[in-house]
Amino acid sequence: MAEAVRFPSSRGPELAGVLETPEGEARGWGLVIHGFTLGKDSPAAFRIARGLAAEGIGMLRYDCLGLGDSDGEWGDGSFTVKVDDTVRAAQFLADRGTPPELLIGHSWGGAAAIVAAQQLPSVRAVVTIGAPSDPAGVERHYDSVADRVVEEGTAPWLIGGRKLTLKRDFVEDVRGSELITQVRTLDRPLLVMHSPTDATVDVDNASAIFRAAEHPRSFISLEGSDHFLTAEGQAERAARIISAWADPYL
User: For 174-198, what is each residue's pLDDT tens digit?
Assistant: First the structure.
């Protein structure tokens, strides 16, 4: 069963989410954090959340600031804001009596999940899917306007047919982000999932995250999948694997 919800972001505007509730008693609860400019209804976020709910794990998927059905401007976000809003989403679940035990992050959301988990005592396990080992790597997507943004404060940026406003604080925050040290201090079981043929985030990123992680750590190769898990059955397969892997921690 899907239920639309809203909760305040760390910046103030409300974020829109969907609770995917199991038909029977839930054996645990978790969050799905979407990628860079994607959203709660992107194939990875939607299908994994729905698949885990079918496996008895209640999930919240939500749109980050200025994306999808959420309020605010995307340019007022950043990597730090994405982490802070993950904490807000977890607090929303805790306030309704279902604190998240599982954090799942796709792409840039995987990096955010690793950092946010360390601020959330209820989280017992973390999963990354196609995550970058350096969040600053996303600058390659907007490098043509980055210098203008730093100099002038803002600049329009076109991606996927959408026009977003890139802001100086966003660019500078992303440039200052660091992940590998956070992986070393995660102190949670970590499942790293990545396709060896990922053309958006190279699988070497998964190797760097896996090498930095302490045990217990696991790696699953998503053979045949693209970065966005759009190939038929791939997101559902990932959900089944996550369900089995996470079982001891729920």
Answer: 888 889 999 999 999 999 999 999 9
Kindly report, residue by residue over 124-180, the tens digit of the pLDDT. Answer: 999 999 999 998 888 887 888 888 888 888 888 887 677 878 888 988 988 888 899
65, 76 contact by CB (below 8 A): yes
Strands (E), 9-83: 14-20, 28-33, 57-62
3-state secondary structure of 114: helix
Query: What are the distances in angstroms from CA 209 to CA 48, 51, 130, 179, 237?
Result: 22, 25, 11, 9, 22
Assigned CATH topology for domain 2-134+178-243: Rossmann fold (3.40.50)
Which residues contact residue 211 at a Cβ distance below 8 angstroms, ignoring those fewer than 6 apart?
Answer: none
pLDDT of residue 167: 87
Structure tokens at 127: 């999963």
Compute, in degrees rounded to 10, the torsion defined by CA atoms 219, 222, 223, 229. -170
Q: Are 166 and 75 in contact (CB under 8 A)?
A: yes
- For residues 106 and 32, what is the distance between their CA atoms, to the nearest angstrom? 8
Rounded-to-integer distance, Cα 93 and Cα 90, Å: 5
Q: What is the DSSP letter of 47?
A: H
Which residues, listed in sequence order, are joined to residue 218 by a DSSP beta bridge? Answer: 191
pLDDT at position 53? 98
